[in-house]
Structures are given as C-alpha cells and as structure tokens.
Amino acid sequence: MNNSQKISRSISILLPTKNDEEIIYQNINNLLDYLDSKFNKFEIIIISNGSDEINIKFIEKIKKLDNRIKVFELKDSGKGIAIKKGIEEAENNLVLIYDSDFAYNINDIEKFFNNNFEPLAPFVVATRDPSNHDLKVSSLRKYLGLSYNFLFNLLFNLNLPDTQAGFKLIDKEIFEESNNITMRKFSYDVELILLAINKNIKIEFIQVEVQNNFGSTSVNYITTPLRMFLELIYLKIKYR
Questions:
Q1: Helices 223-238 & 139-156, crossing angle to 10 degrees?
Q2: Ramachandran area for residue 50 (φ above 0: left; ψ -120 to 50: alpha; else beta)
Q3: Rounded CA gap, 211 and 31, in Å?
Q4: What is the C-alpha separation between 123 and 172, in angstroms, rounded?
C-alpha cells in the first residue's frame, strides 16, 4: 500500500483492557497517528473491564487526547465480555480487535486488507510468527497456548493455526453473529471462530509480528488450564 493512500472504509478499533490503561496512554498517540494516515474515518473504543483503581485513573487522561476515543468501564472482568460490549458499541461495520498491551506491530493492520483496500474476508484472524513470538513468551505460557490450540483442533476436528492472538478483523455487516459471544474470558477467540464456521463465514488467517509482551495479564498455571479445558468442553457441547 502506498503511504499516501488511505483505506476509504471506516473502522472501529477495540482495545479491551484489564490493567493495561497506562500502556494504552503511553502508546495511543502512535496508534492515532497511524490511523490518521491510513483511514479516512475511525474510532477507538477502550473497554476497561475489572481494572484496578490505579489503572482506571489513566482513563480520564486518555479521554482528553482525542474526541474519536470512546471509553466504557465495566465492573465485571473478562475479555470476552469486553469484546462483546465493544462490538455492540462500534459505529462502523469493520471492527478490529487489538490487544491493549500493544503486543502487535500496528503496521500489520494493513495485512488485513487486499490491494483494493477491502478486508481479505469477513473474519480475518492474525497468527503469531513463531520465530518472533517464541522470543517474547515464557516456555510455560507457550506450552499452555500450544496445548490449548491442539485440544481445540482435536475436539472440533479442525487444523487451524494459532487461534489466540488478540488481533482480529470482523465485518459485522456480514458476520452478524460476531457479537453472540457467551464466553467471558479466554475462549472468546475460539468461540468467534466456531460462530463463523457455523454460519459459513469465510475466515482468512494472516501472520503478524509480535513486538513486545510487557503488558500481558498474569496467568495462574494451575487454575487457568483447568478453566480453559472446561470452556472447550462447554463449547464442544454447544457447537457440536
């Protein structure tokens, strides 16, 4: 894409956050500059869910930066809850989910579009470059992610690459069921995929660069695997 060319489609950027508000404040001007250079019209929707008071204080500072930034504060914690709320509140049909720790290179947003500046599909899912991603995550967390993805593919007889990257593009005009998320936490990613498959929505996978991991939510390596396993069993029953 030529640097002077803009994507004419309007877009809503969703930043779900639990205690990443300070990171958003530090990085959002770069995101605003990028979006200004690439899109004719956009909005940024920040959904704070279950954040500590010390992090919520940054919300007022963020609100003052630009009138295209909208902020919603949810008392309940859960990324799935935040994503569902963001999709419902988005004014534009194109909705980009972007992890609020800014783990992904914002220039990779262009990869979601073809040469005609149209989305590659109604649902575009980013996968993390293994050679790059491996350097930024602990071995235990990497193993947990690989095990989860393997179990998901096994249960649903699929052969999908990395499904857990928090970087996804949805055209909700076509993918109308995208806000029918019931999973409150980790498994919202795969539920979106299952919703798309059930409605024969085309899914395109792209590879993106992981640039940091400094804001990732801590993981309990005892309770989290159990919760994720139980969520997959629930989804297997629901979407069988």
A1: 20
A2: left
A3: 14
A4: 9
**Cα 163 to Cα 146: distance, rounded to the nearest angstrom:** 10
CB-based contact 6:40 (threshold 8 Å):
yes
Question: Across residues 99-121, what is the average pLDDT?
Answer: 93
Residue bearing the bigger pLDDT, 125 or 164: 125
Query: 127-160, pLDDT tens digit by residue?
Result: 987 665 555 556 667 777 788 899 999 999 999 8
Choose among 95, 52, 94: nearest CA to 73: 52
* CA distance from start to end of the chain: 41
Which of 91, 84, 92, 118 minimizes the C-alpha distance to 188?
84
- The answer, yes or no, to whether residue 195 has pLDDT greater than 60, is yes
Q: Is 0.85 surpassed by the pTM of this model? A: yes
Which residue, among 164, 158, 148, has the nearest Cα to 198 in the 3D structure? 158
Q: How far apart are CA 44 and CA 27, in angstroms?
A: 13
CA–CA gap between residue 172 and residue 3 (Å, rounded): 27
Tokens of 217: 């939510």
Strands 203-208 and 123-128: parallel
Please answer whether residues 167 and 123 qualify as being in contact, where contact means their C-beta atoms are separated by less than 8 angstroms.
Answer: no
